[in-house]
């Protein structure tokens, strides 16, 4: 059995005491200030590379005592993340530049490299003298190389460690699969056995969420006043509902992605931009979230297992015959669920045909045809994570 090394994140719940929480919040305040300064630099036309930002950080730390109180590692990492996000936004078409992080709508997130943290007596110790008890829910496979400490919308703190682990290599297989995303069926694949049906986790709680959101708006105080206890309670309820649905989506997506990745060596995925659907009704937004989770899991898992994952632009996939490759003259309306080829007479379910057409595009490309353009862009959940392999796009 082959064993391969892979880089993964292991995430643990943190239980910071009042002092640690205050220290983390203060640290986040300083890092947020630095991030916003970097955004200001970019907006005023100075292209802030990490090199320039580091120099500015040194100057700022010399000038401001309150900035010196914070950890230099966390501050540098904030600027590094910003610089990478900015670079990434130049590379991807239509991507906005990194935005200002406001106190009211950004959640704390701090990054530390090896010299910024240690684990002693089963506690996480961060630079700046912050000590936090960790819930060690599973054994870490190796010494972590970095950690991200963050708070979620429910106010829970987590530490996400980057570690190496040895895993059994995915079995050698030679099946191929094409994946098309949709609203009624989250993922339609070229092989019906691997379809991911839409399970409606977000839609199921939509009514309850709407009720909680109405409660929030009823209890919202005018601008400039501190929020009431009732408002904060309703806000938390809304966050809990969101979180639950998101967890269910991730869970389903993981199980599905594992099955797809284990059985296929080549995975052709429709390069779907979730924003496309999210502008309309609740049901669509819900489907969108499910698609986002499934897509992320499939790509992540496929890459880690060393499978060939190719992103195919969705243009023309629904109007191309998967049997003979002829492109129809007209677009298929959204109501037309059956694809019928005018050339060879092939008939198939619209989404199934699209999934097969996506797969056919990639296989044609592999056979050596040169009518498909290659755009190589790195792509990840975070968008600009370092040391990530690149996914070929067609
Ligand atoms: Zn045809």
TrEMBL record:
<feature type="region of interest" description="Disordered">
    <location>
        <begin position="213"/>
        <end position="233"/>
    </location>
</feature>
<dbReference type="Pfam" id="PF07282">
    <property type="entry name" value="Cas12f1-like_TNB"/>
</dbReference>
<feature type="domain" description="Probable transposase IS891/IS1136/IS1341">
    <location>
        <begin position="168"/>
        <end position="272"/>
    </location>
</feature>
<dbReference type="GO" id="GO:0032196">
    <property type="term" value="P:transposition"/>
</dbReference>
<protein>
    <submittedName>
        <fullName>Transposase</fullName>
    </submittedName>
</protein>
<dbReference type="InterPro" id="IPR010095">
    <property type="entry name" value="Cas12f1-like_TNB"/>
</dbReference>
<dbReference type="InterPro" id="IPR001959">
    <property type="entry name" value="Transposase"/>
</dbReference>
<comment type="similarity">
    <text>In the C-terminal section; belongs to the transposase 35 family.</text>
</comment>
<dbReference type="GO" id="GO:0003677">
    <property type="term" value="F:DNA binding"/>
</dbReference>
<keyword id="KW-0238">DNA-binding</keyword>
<feature type="domain" description="Cas12f1-like TNB">
    <location>
        <begin position="303"/>
        <end position="358"/>
    </location>
</feature>
<dbReference type="Pfam" id="PF01385">
    <property type="entry name" value="OrfB_IS605"/>
</dbReference>
<feature type="compositionally biased region" description="Basic residues">
    <location>
        <begin position="213"/>
        <end position="223"/>
    </location>
</feature>
<dbReference type="GO" id="GO:0006310">
    <property type="term" value="P:DNA recombination"/>
</dbReference>
<keyword id="KW-0815">Transposition</keyword>
<keyword id="KW-0233">DNA recombination</keyword>
